[in-house]
């Protein structure tokens, strides 16, 4: 019996040591890149009652159209989805008509190009990943449809524990904003390959193939918002969050309703239990 207890204790100690070793290795790898952690931004859609700012989403869409769309696709977003941003059906149809998409085959069996309709998805800027890579220093630009959910920096222990209670889920937008505003001169502490650009917020290395895409005054806003790199980055990050999670507001509303129902149900169950067992206490 005692041998069994000692054996079990040794197994537990071994598992604990293995767990600590893996945690340390993970922390070491996570600490290497990015060099700097993104700073948490103040987003309108943050928290359990957060909602999208449609004005900001429209500005972000403008930045995407005029800057990002030259290299980055938005394959999972249809033009009709833009109505969620506050555009009318007529405005959406007009926006779609500015693009061309491939259709067909026609009666002769050939594919052809036509003006896009609201039911179409945004066309990709390149015909295939190989063409995209050849046009961008050997690195194909990622699709932006889910980038705000796919890119986030590991926050590590114990921060991620607190995130459960604060409901922090804006790691993607925070990362995108930090990356777009984080370009600068290499301090000479890292090896920067030729043709790449130093950015301490990049999640994979000290530099990336993409040059700084936005600068002050590059995009004209019609609502009087500041035309700065920081504002552009903030707006396009919000737009990409919407592209990745267009039903965020409905999800939060449904979740809140479910929580109210659970609390009411728990109260009814407790009162029912007290009533049924009251004669036995």
UniProtKB/TrEMBL annotation:
Annotated compartments: Membrane
Coiled-coil spans in chain: none
GO cellular component: membrane
Residues annotated as binding heme c: 68, 71-72, 210
Note describing how the cofactor binds: Binds 1 heme c group covalently per subunit.
Domain Cytochrome c residues, every copy: 55-244
Annotated GO MF terms: electron transfer activity; heme binding; metal ion binding
Residue spans crossing the bilayer: 254-272
Superkingdom, taxonomy of origin: Bacteria
Major place of residence: membrane
Keyword Iron: yes
Pfam families attached to this UniProt entry: Cytochrom_C1
Signal peptide: 1-30
Cofactor(s) listed: heme c
Protein's UniProt name: Cytochrome c1
């Amino acid at each position: 019996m005692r041998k069994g207890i000692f054996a079990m204790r040794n197994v537990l100690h071994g598992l604990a040591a293995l767990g600590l070793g893996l945690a340390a290795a993970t922390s070491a790898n996570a600490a290497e890149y990015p060099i700097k952690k993104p700073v948490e931004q103040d987003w309108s859609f943050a928290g359990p009652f957060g909602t999208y700012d449609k004005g900001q989403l429209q500005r972000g869409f403008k930045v995407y159209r005029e800057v990002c769309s030259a290299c980055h696709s938005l394959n999972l977003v249809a033009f009709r989805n833009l109505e969620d941003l506050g555009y009318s059906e007529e405005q959406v149809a007009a926006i779609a008509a500015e693009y061309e998409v491939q259709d067909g085959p026609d009666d002769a069996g050939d594919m052809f190009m036509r003006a896009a309709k609201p039911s179409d998805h945004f066309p990709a800027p390149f015909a295939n990943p190989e063409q995209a890579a050849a046009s961008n220093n050997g690195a194909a630009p990622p699709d932006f449809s889910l980038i705000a959910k796919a890119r986030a920096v590991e926050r590590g222990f114990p921060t991620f524990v607190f995130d459960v209670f604060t409901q922090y889920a804006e790691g993607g937008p925070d990362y995108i904003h930090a990356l777009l505003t984080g370009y600068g001169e290499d301090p000479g502490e890292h090896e920067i390959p030729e043709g790449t650009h130093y950015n301490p917020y990049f999640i994979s290395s000290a530099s990336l193939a993409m040059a700084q895409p936005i600068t002050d005054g590059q995009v004209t806003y019609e609502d009087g918002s500041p035309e700065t790199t920081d504002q552009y980055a903030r707006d396009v990050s919000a737009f990409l969050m919407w592209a990745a999670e267009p039903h965020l507001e409905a999800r939060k509303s449904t979740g809140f309703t479910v929580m109210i129902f659970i609390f009411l149900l728990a109260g009814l169950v407790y009162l029912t239990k007290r009533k049924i067992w009251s004669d036995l206490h």
